[in-house]
Amino acid sequence: MNNQEPVRAQPLTREAFGPFGDVISVERAGGSSANQGTARRYDRVAQLASTRPEAQPNLAVFRSVAKALPFEVRLVERHPCSTQMFMPVACQRFLIVVCPSDAQGEPELSQLCAFVCGPGQGINYHAGVWHHPIIALEGPADFLMLAWEDGTARDCEERPLSAPLLVTSD
């Protein structure tokens, strides 16, 4: 196990997650009427982007098995040229683990943060943000994922950790 202190997962908020991406959730107020008044529409809930013109949007479904806290982080990954959005389809809570880059663009593991996303919350990672793959917490979960990909190694870069980092609950 790593000598670093365990990271305590905190509830997901826009303010805390802001340096890493967007929190996707809708407030009861706001939005605009749609479909002859049978729905509310919320536009531009995340800043989606790609820096590769040849990459195509990929809307995928991820089926995640449940894990429990405490959880051992053994790798981080990033998508250097694209944002990556996850929106739960069937899920109660899920774990997000992120960290900034150091001066060389590698993961700054001493600044690792963990968030627990609640019902109705999704996330959109900014391009290049180091993160652990998504983790369902209370049972298997399905997520919609959107990222721009072209099938090359630039789609996703992974970094295994030399020793696991522990994420604990509140």
TrEMBL record:
GO BP terms, alphabetized: allantoin catabolic process; purine nucleobase metabolic process
Gene Ontology MF terms: ureidoglycolate hydrolase activity; ureidoglycolate lyase activity
Species this chain originates from: Hyalangium minutum
Stored InterPro entries: RmlC_Cupin_sf (IPR011051), UAH_cupin (IPR047233), Ureidogly_lyase (IPR007247), Ureidoglycolate_lyase_dom_sf (IPR024060)
Gene3D superfamilies in the cross-refs: Ureidoglycolate hydrolase
Annotated signal peptide: none
CDD domains the UniProt entry points to: cupin_UAH
Superkingdom: Bacteria
Designated name of the protein: Ureidoglycolate hydrolase
Keyword Hydrolase annotated: yes
Catalytic reaction list: (S)-ureidoglycolate = urea + glyoxylate
Keyword Hydrolase: yes
Binding partners and assembly: Homodimer.
Keywords assigned by UniProt, alphabetized: Hydrolase, Lyase, Purine metabolism
Pfam families membership: Ureidogly_lyase (PF04115)
